[in-house]
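Continuing the batch. This is chain 6 of the set; chains 1 through 5 are on the previous pages. Same settings as before, nothing changed between runs. Recording input and output for traceability.
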Amino acid sequence: MDPYLLLKAIGFILLMIIGIPGNIFIILQFTYIKILEKKLLPTNIILTVLAMANFLIVLSRIIPQALNAIGIEDLLNDTECKFVIYTYRISRAMSICITSLLSFYQCILISPTAGVWIYLKRKVTQNMWIIIIIVSVINLSMYPYSFLSTHARKNRTSSQYALHLVYCDTDFLTYMAYIVNGTVYSLRDFIFVGLMMLSSIYMVYILLRHEKNMKGIRNSDRGQRRSAEYKASRAVILLVALYVVLFGLDNSMWIYTLTRSNVSPDMNDIRIFLASSYATLSPIVIIITNPKLQHCWKYSHWTRPFQKDIGINGRLISISR
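Output for chain 6:
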């Protein structure tokens, strides 16, 4: 086997081996909590939807890449290509939107006690499912071009303005359509990445300021509360950092491809590997930084969810543990 194909196969198979059980574990764990307690905390709702989006990315992008790397050819026909590419586009869009929503929600949870923040916290908490449904509908309506322009590579010849995606080609036919499509979705990604970063920076600022205010409290209480605060913020900070690095590289390469009329399959393989890595690595971050999931993963049995209340600026904040 060609060294490049061997390396490609190993890389995507590893992503598949890690990503499938990791995302399924998160989905099943929070589903069990929902059944057990008849409700799910907003943060856990967001994490469940994120795991679902990441799982679809593994199915629609990582698995076809792995199968192609080990030599399986002509796997999909035109209809299957349209479905797979559309699923990947939607799940990728949901992944970035839900990660941004997670950072924004945790930002308002630890924000100072003020009228606008209290209003946002109440409205977002009460309408979390509605917000997620609206985001899903918007993303579903943004990709009709995937059905119109995607076809199996074996069935026809693509124009010079095409993206070669394993078994499928997405053909934009004209240079203008190619540029507009890439610019719109890259701009969307950078906007959401910017929102993630702003929310995370503000959250770190609030936590650092709170740590200074806790100096007068006895060491035992201060240590417990500080530990809870860092655990509550670490997951978001790590997820945002992971997303910024991987998808920043992905979008930088995407912008580069906009300057080329015929993009090589190797370039698309690298982009897809970077973009898909978040779907595999983010479950690891979530499990490691979430005590409930970590406990279940370590001891192989379900535990009842509980909450830890911490005080920030003289008020109580409920953090899922």
